[in-house]
Amino acid sequence: MRIKVYKEFNFSAAHKLVDYNGECANLHGHTYKLGVAVSGSVGENSMVIDFKVLKNIVEERVVSKLDHKYLNDIIHNPTAERVCEWILDELKDYMPESVNLEFIRLWESETSYVEISLK
Ligand SMILES: [Zn+2]
């Protein structure tokens, strides 16, 4: 039986959209919420993955690189979709071999998110 394990993170960042006709072309910021889900079988330690291990990976690979940063310096035209793709690139090779990355969900506001599903 595979069990899904999910954890949420927050970071704040500034961006502006390129070639965009609207107010999002102006410099502004978001407090993003990031959700990362992995799945796997329960191991000898009775866990799929220790939440602390997942937290350390995502904080090191993603949150520490994006929090309080200007996203346009890091990601070309950082729409929620492009930021989510960048996050996938940062995480995909750094998960323990015992788990599969299931999805990455990035909220740009409380009511709006994009998701990359790896299934
Ligand atoms: Zn925005």
UniProtKB/TrEMBL annotation:
Q: What does the Swiss-Prot or TrEMBL cofactor note state?
A: Binds 1 zinc ion per subunit.
Protein name (Swiss-Prot/TrEMBL): 6-carboxy-5,6,7,8-tetrahydropterin synthase
InterPro entries in alphabetical order: 6-PTP_synth/QueD, 6-PTP_synth/QueD_sf
Which residues participate directly in catalysis?
24, 68, 108
| UniProt keywords, alphabetically | Lyase, Metal-binding, Queuosine biosynthesis, Zinc
What's its catalytic activity? Answer: 7,8-dihydroneopterin 3'-triphosphate + H2O = 6-carboxy-5,6,7,8-tetrahydropterin + triphosphate + acetaldehyde + 2 H(+)
Q: Name one GO molecular function term.
A: 6-carboxytetrahydropterin synthase activity
SUPFAM superfamilies assigned to the protein according to its UniProt record, in alphabetical order:
Tetrahydrobiopterin biosynthesis enzymes-like
The GO biological-process annotations, alphabetized, read as: tRNA queuosine(34) biosynthetic process
Main enzyme class:
lyase
To which pathway does this protein belong? Purine metabolism; 7-cyano-7-deazaguanine biosynthesis
Q: Which organism is it from?
A: Thermodesulfobium acidiphilum
Indicate the family of this protein. Belongs to the PTPS family. QueD subfamily.
Enzyme Commission number(s) of this protein: 4.-.-.-
For this protein, the record's Pfam families field holds: PTPS
Its cofactor is: Zn(2+)
What Gene3D superfamilies does its record include? Answer: 6-pyruvoyl tetrahydropterin synthase/QueD (3.30.479.10)
Q: Which domain of life is it from?
A: Bacteria
Residues engaged in binding Zn(2+): 15, 28, 30
